């Protein structure tokens, strides 16, 4: 790769994975300080990349989910070729994303083996068994495949005071009052969701101790219903709890998290946004492994009952009881969160 040539990073499809890939950009920037770094990302994930200081430009993928769309990929690759990329880092493990830099004639194409992508990926990495946590998994792509593993830096996002003020105004939140953010949703499936009644009991405990506090329920439009369940369970504390799921853009949600005194989240993309903004975080795990994608804030706790049946990594509880989440009660989470609020 010639000095100063542009670098293309092809984003994962999930918000949390995009955040956990940010240390790769830190390493690329350190190794190629003069090279602009562009990111090709799905529209739903693009706002996260725009909060990373290393990114020169975010390009949004025009492809539909699922189909190969070979003709469309060829046309888009022609556009990328004119931008003069010297290297591409392909983070999704699918064949169809590896096609894009190959069709664009980008000479250095870096990624993991994935779906047997020999030829399409010409600097090929292989993951360990068992797999590494996600942050070092992505960060390793900045080095040669045979290089020894190195500790990865922490992901870092940034928000401005103007973004925070605008997001609070949009959500109807008082800028001067303490804010606690809940993320009750999980795109992966219902098994990753802590019960709404537990979130409601936790909100009541927060407001009882800190009457000035406000609790914001964040998420996508798909999370609106589960956040409504939380709101319905808070009884006398309802005035202090705001369901803004689906009413803020992802960029505005990131800004609200950046303003939060603490964040309580399932294992979801917003959890990793909170960590990357270095907010105090309580992360709740049931069917997934807290060691695979842990929070990395200065002040963070990963709570898991670590039952014999977990991590099952299933979208719905295969045993039907959901004990890994149901038996992790609000009192336990409150004992972890309470001192964080005192330190915030």
Automatic annotation (TrEMBL):
Parts of the chain that traverse the membrane: none
Reaction catalyzed: an L-alpha-D-Hep-(1->5)-[alpha-Kdo-(2->4)]-alpha-Kdo-(2->6)-lipid A + ADP-L-glycero-beta-D-manno-heptose = an L-alpha-D-Hep-(1->3)-L-alpha-D-Hep-(1->5)-[alpha-Kdo-(2->4)]-alpha-Kdo-(2->6)-lipid A + ADP + H(+)
GO MF annotation terms: ADP-heptose-lipopolysaccharide heptosyltransferase activity
Family affiliation: Belongs to the glycosyltransferase 9 family.
Record EC number: 2.4.99.24
Keywords per UniProt: Glycosyltransferase, Transferase
Name of this protein: lipopolysaccharide heptosyltransferase II
GO biological process, one term: lipopolysaccharide core region biosynthetic process
